[in-house]
Write a structure and sequence with these properties.
This protein is mainly alpha-helical and 173 residues long. The chain contains eight helices and three strands, in the order αααααββαβαα. The N terminus is likely disordered.
Length: 173
Amino acid sequence: MGGPLSALALQGTSFYNNQTMGGFEPIHHLIQDFSKDHALGQKLLEVRLQEEWPSIVGQTLAKHSSPDSIRFHKLYLVAENSVWLQQLVFLKSSILEALQSRIPELSLVDIILRLGPLPAPMVTPQDVVPDVPGPSPEHVALGLLLAKRLSNPELRKAIGQTIAKGLSHSENQ
């Protein structure tokens, strides 16, 4: 069923005209085309806005406000408190202009402001501290041995542990 006649029958369709038969189309083009008319596209734009929010409004304003959602071409913004809400009221038209030039696909016509808790900041791989193994028994013994002259037992233990951690850290690097 998939012989030469099938290929000829497809020539008039948009499927064939999108170069899927003669070549490959980049995946990001396919995702964009698919997401334009689906809720997925709107969610992708919201995520993009949330990621770019600090560079659009500046770090200070971004720490005290957050894009919540987009509905009916209106951006719903959350402000941390009434002081920042008032600041957003004054900057509303400037923010709208910046958004329209930076992410025109949003097609925003208004910004709706409200008070509320801000979402927790997203954790990036750079923020994650790698697991560091604890000191080996040998390092602990050596640390306690080096700190044995101290008369205060709590201080002796703390200094011994610090030495052990330092020895294991230098060995791991």
